[in-house]
Amino acid sequence: MSDPSTPQEILRALYDETLVGNAPRVLELTRTGLDSGMTPESMLFEALIPSLEEVGARFERGDFFVPEMLIAGRAMSGALDVLRPLLADTGADSVGTFLMGTVKGDVHDIGKNLVNIMLEGAGFHVIDLGVQVAPEKFVAAIEEHRPDVVGFSAFLTTTMPMFKANINALTKAGLRDQVIVMVGGAPVTQEYADAVGADGYAADASAAVKRAKELIQRRRSAMTV
User: What's the pTM value of the predicted model, to 2 decimals?
Assistant: First the structure.
């Protein structure tokens, strides 16, 4: 089979190779697309992100497992390393700064990483604190980076109470009113987010991007009134 040459062929190949986690091929196709004049946005939104969303759907159905999720995410990250500076060079203003971390006691990061990738693709500057992030580390990072949004991620029901502990730490440090708090993760619900006093919740990565934009716009509009 000949190498893909048209934009549609390249997008299809990017989608397929990301799905199976073929990182070298994804990187090669990304560079081929750029050399042929394709935009970073088209490859991100028409191939890479849809492929990773399909990986997530297959994981939820039990067709994929953690290893498949990880290798697909790594393949996507390699492409994003190439595309990120080009997306920044388009001259588009940053939508905002999003500080993200998985809460203390929780080492799961696949969902968080997918959200980060989609946030970056949507124009956010993302600061990822990693996993097992203690409340005091969130506080220090907010003081240092002054993000628009801080995101708390939890995959386990046993670590979800850390949302409230983190928010309490922000309040004690005098930071609660200075940052939008979003929460998410597999067991999290809108009701739980409301109960702990979060500003926003999203059920998936795509919804997280939309919700973050809405909350930032609402805050900025309120500040100009």
Answer: 0.72
